[in-house]
Amino acid sequence: MVEAVLIDLFSLPPNLQNNIQGLLRNTLETIEKRSSIPAPFVYIMCHQRQKNETNGEEESLFPSLSDFQSLKKRLEVVHSLTTAAALYTIKQRLDEKDLSIIKVILPTLRKGLMKVYIDHLFTAVYQFEFEDLQVASDCENLQIAEPRSEGQALPPQDVALIQSEIQMYLESLPSLKGDLTILRSSLIPDDIFLHGFTTRMGGISYIPTLSSCNLFSSSKRRDPQVVVKENLRRLANAAGFNPETFHRVKIDHANAVCVMGKTEPDSYDGIVTDQKGVTIGAPGADCIPVLFADPVRKACGAAHSGWKGTLLGVSMATVNAMVSEYGCNVKDILVVLGPSVGPCCYKLPHESAKEFHRIDPTCVRQFDSASPYIDIRRATRILLESGGIRPENIQDDSVTDQNQNITFCTACHPDKFYSHFRDGNNFGTQIGFISIKD
């Protein structure tokens, strides 16, 4: 069942401009006749010419709005200077109401353009269907330009213009939840490495569980890749790295490691480099973003260590890649554990907890319960130390700094961090990042 209807009047062909009232009345009558109870939400997208003309234009659109009683309280006109701005505003309205099934009614000539905008501003969470804007009875004899064939793609230059329009609009949006904040470790020498861990502040993501500096997009979440890219651009500007040479792990919850400059695996949870000007990163939203730095050989790494990756030894796999690829000495490698869920909050089924108990009984609390509390940080430290990393070269602030400089519990701090455990499936993601300075 259609939950919302979007009527695109943003850029009507000139021969339909004078009949906008007839077009709209015809369309609203059709929506009202078809809709079940309750009626769908209706959004009308219009071009904003002058701010002082907006109210008058809206009134001219609805000379008899009282005729559409079932739609009246669910109807909104969105005036914007660009299609990107209008569509993103409507997306916010949809997300506020958790709506996902949308019918778009639009001139045939706009369909190809609209699909490109939707592909960039929405994810697979949303379902769209398209319907041609029906010409009202008093303008049926007007000639409409020949439409582009259904399967014909827009020229690359048109797609590039749309991408540029979207990017410019997103760059103009204010940051939410305060200034962008980067947590840095005193263990990693800042004269050699640029590094940090993000918090949830300072981006443009507006959905509560993703707000505001979400740095990961997927088909299952409502934050599109263009928004994540804009959040990353703001982070890069604040931190001082080039977002175009940023590489993050492709999560598989396992222990594969990508070596920059070699063939990239399809998926991996660790990444290493000795290239200057390249920034590497690993996400975390309860899972640990782990950073590695060798100031002697000037090499670095990043890993995503969830409970599965921890058990599979992804952190030592990253260390071993640095040793084998760059000749690092394991005793020179510095390791920092970023914000992640702590043993105060994180539970696993008893069968999974047994694996952590085998690493060390102190990694599990309330072991005899059905869902014991798990300390994935402690397990990571134990595995690193058994692999040759010096204890003093591992920063885990839940142990090394009780003031909690970096290794906060993500689930305990909703104001600072995202948490899958706390927020459910539509969760945001922070990252740890590192690069070698020129």
TrEMBL record:
EC numbers for this chain: 2.4.2.1, 2.4.2.28, 3.5.4.4
Compartment(s) of residence: Cytoplasm; Endoplasmic reticulum; Nucleus; Peroxisome
SUPFAM superfamilies to which the protein is assigned, alphabetical: CNF1/YfiH-like putative cysteine hydrolases
Catalysed conversion reaction: guanosine + phosphate = alpha-D-ribose 1-phosphate + guanine; adenosine + phosphate = alpha-D-ribose 1-phosphate + adenine; adenosine + H2O + H(+) = inosine + NH4(+); S-methyl-5'-thioadenosine + phosphate = 5-(methylsulfanyl)-alpha-D-ribose 1-phosphate + adenine
UniProt superkingdom: Eukaryota
CDD domains: YfiH
Example GO BP: innate immune response
Any one annotated GO CC term: peroxisome
InterPro entries named among the record's database cross-references: Cu_polyphenol_OxRdtase, Cu_polyphenol_OxRdtase_sf, Cytotoxic_necrot_fac-like_cat
Subunit structure, interactors included: Interacts with FASN. Interacts with SDHA. Interacts with ATF6, EIF2AK3 and ERN1.
UniProt xrefs under PANTHER family: PURINE NUCLEOSIDE PHOSPHORYLASE LACC1, UNCHARACTERIZED PROTEIN YFIH
Family to which the UniProt record says this protein belongs: Belongs to the purine nucleoside phosphorylase YfiH/LACC1 family.
Protein name: Purine nucleoside phosphorylase LACC1
Lineage, opening ranks: Eukaryota, Metazoa, Chordata, Craniata, Vertebrata
